[in-house]
Prior knowledge:
The chain has two domains: 20-121, Immunoglobulins (Immunoglobulin-like, Sandwich); 127-228, Uncharacterised protein PF12988, DUF3872 (Immunoglobulin-like, Sandwich).
Amino acid sequence: MMRVFLAAIIAGCAACSSRFPDVPLNRGLQSLRPNAVIDIADGTRTIAFVATVDRTALALGQSITFTTTVGSFSPSGTTITVPVDAADSAVAQLRAPADTSAGMVIASMGGVSASTPVTFLKAPPTGIEIAESPPILVAGPNSNVVLTVTLTRDTGSPSPGFVVHFSSDSSSHCVGTFGADSIVEVNDTVRVGFAVADTLCEGTVTVHVFASRGSDSTQTFSRAIPVVQPPPPSH
Length: 235
């Protein structure tokens, strides 16, 4: 009688697997993409991180929490909670920082997490704008123009800390001097005075500018500045 009873229990459980399917060991969180991101720290670009889930292991209405130690999520903050969508995924947009840094993006749900390293490199300037005021330089020790140099990028902003270097030459042998021979930019812009001390000088002086930070440097940009002699003293 005992043997018959045990056999009945075993036979009765033969269909258990069809009623209670196996639950994945990760409790639903499948992956986090992209992996091992390397990008540019221009303060503007965004990277979409996608966490995918196995909905068969989840109740409806689940969400995934994203956390970052580098940059910030749109619209703001280092932590954001995103509902799982109909495609069984949740997407978080990470905005690049304004300067070089490295860290991790982590997706977590139900005590299970997935992470990926993220590195942001320097965003060098791709262009330099040069403007002078006034537009004509009067030669002499008591007159100068103010050069405004702005570092630019096609997208976003250059990383801070680039040093701006100045030089000049002239086909008319006018010798120009700057207020400083290198200036660290602040908010992408530097200003420096430029003068030609010789009152007999007349013609054009060309100013050359490039920027560098560590091993990164821009190409050289130039601007021609007309130079005139001072008016004769009045009697």
